[in-house]
Task: structure prediction
Amino acid sequence: MKNKFLMLKITFALVILTLITFVASCDLVTEEQRCVEAGGEWRQFSDACADLCEYRRGEVDMCAQVLTMSCDCGEGMCWTGYVCEPI
Result:
């Protein structure tokens, strides 16, 4: 009985350590931070397409009419979700 309880405690500790390691290795940089680092401006858009490359390059036909926070990369550029790229 004591051995089973000890094994349970060890297993629990290993699970907790694995979770802590996973969380510590996650990318904690927000999309807003990536936008600013890429030279863009984080602002509100009037639809879900915002300044997204998929829309600006014609890969998406329709946009939801909802206020959306996203990156404005400026003239001739679009936002991939990670960086500003030329259209």
User: Anything to note?
Assistant: The beta strands are 41-45, 68-72, 77-79, 84-86. The chain has one domain: 2-86.
